[in-house]
């Protein structure tokens, strides 16, 4: 007995020793030791307590360093746990959160992330449980249909009869579980799941009550389908109205390529009351007006010797009417003229030529300009 008393006293003193020692430590030493153990929650608690007393456990720079260490550990644990979650390693993620909170127990970010992970895990487990229940129900329903057929063909098969009895023993509890699942799904506004589970429940345990529950679920499903269809129609109508407004805005702003794209989208799913033929006519009139003004602007550039500008205008018009023959002829003529102009520029005399040579070059340029005008006038 004396040995037991001595052993108890030794254990008590050993347990109290760290407490006494920690009570003898200065705040700065206590913070240092807490940081060495990565117990940043304890370190920050000491710093806050000393600050509330109007004292400083550490110099300002060291206190900031402790806060940075705690924030770095917090971020590292968050990233580590997030990596585990991406790989579906739920236990490892929980362990990372636990380690982080052990070192930073006052971390709201770690606690919130852990709670979100637990909620997601619980939701996934519930969904998986429902899938397993439905899979077992379908399996039992198939077996419940096959064994009676087997026994009608082989009534003397004792092994099949024993297996059938075991299946029948599972049918009742499974039908009840599926009925509860269907009722819960219906209460939570999930009619598709309710119909699936109640159909299996009725197949396993037919009856008037099962039929009534199933019909109620089917009615709820039809209501949901109708609501979804109405919402899709409303969304399509709203989108069509927005496209119609965008088309009219593009026409008003002269953005004819954009107007054409909007018109093509409207033709695929026109809103109610939209007159697509009138819209096409409006767009065609705008394109015709743009073509006429663009052709004339290109001619003016061409006659003035601005071949590149004329070609840019006409090529831009080709995006509006790619198959226009007159426009294609203008583009080909301008391209030939531009090639000739580049060839002549390549043969031009260097800048340090004599003044008389430069004047001759000016006369040649005038001749080319006049020749270009004559070519345009002769071209159909």
From TrEMBL:
Residues 1-21 form the signal peptide. PROSITE patterns: PROKAR_LIPOPROTEIN (PS51257). Keywords: Signal. This is Tetratricopeptide repeat-containing protein. The keyword Signal applies. Residues 345-380 are annotated as: Disordered.
């Amino acid at each position: 007995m004396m040995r037991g008393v001595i052993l108890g006293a030794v254990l008590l003193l050993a347990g109290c020793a760290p407490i006494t020692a920690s009570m003898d430590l200065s705040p700065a030493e206590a913070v240092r030791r807490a940081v060495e153990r990565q117990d940043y929650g304890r370190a920050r608690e000491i710093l806050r307590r000393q600050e509330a007393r109007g004292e400083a456990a550490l110099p300002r720079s060291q206190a900031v360093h402790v806060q940075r260490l705690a924030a770095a550990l917090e971020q590292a644990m968050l990233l580590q746990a997030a990596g585990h979650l991406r790989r579906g390693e739920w236990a490892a993620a929980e362990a990372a959160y636990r380690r982080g909170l052990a070192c930073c127990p006052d971390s709201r970010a770690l606690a919130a992330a852990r709670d979100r992970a637990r909620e997601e895990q619980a939701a996934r487990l519930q969904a998986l449980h429902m899938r397993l229940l439905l899979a077992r129900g379908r399996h039992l329903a198939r077996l419940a249909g096959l064994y009676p057929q087997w026994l009608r063909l082989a009534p003397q098969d004792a092994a099949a009869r024993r297996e059938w009895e075991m299946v029948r023993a599972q049918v009742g509890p499974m039908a009840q579980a599926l009925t509860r699942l269907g009722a819960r799904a219906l209460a939570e506004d999930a009619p598709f799941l309710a119909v699936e589970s109640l159909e299996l429940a009725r197949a396993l345990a037919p009856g008037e009550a099962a039929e009534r529950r199933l019909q109620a679920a089917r009615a709820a499903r039809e209501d949901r389908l109708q609501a979804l269809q109405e919402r899709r129609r409303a969304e399509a109508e709203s989108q069509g109205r927005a496209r119609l407004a965008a088309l009219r805005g593009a026409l008003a702003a002269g953005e004819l390529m954009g107007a054409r794209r909007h018109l093509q989208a409207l033709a695929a799913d026109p809103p109610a009351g939209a007159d697509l033929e009138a819209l096409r006519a409006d767009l065609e009139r705008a394109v015709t007006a743009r073509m006429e003004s663009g052709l004339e602007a290109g001619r003016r550039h061409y006659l003035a010797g601005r071949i590149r500008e004329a070609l840019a205008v006409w090529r831009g018009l080709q995006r509006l009417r790619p198959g226009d023959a007159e426009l294609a002829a203008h583009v080909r003529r301008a391209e030939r003229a531009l090639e000739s102009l580049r060839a002549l520029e390549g043969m031009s005399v260097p800048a340090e030529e004599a003044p008389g040579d430069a004047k001759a070059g000016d006369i040649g340029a005038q001749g080319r300009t006049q020749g270009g005008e004559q070519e345009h006038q002769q071209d159909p």
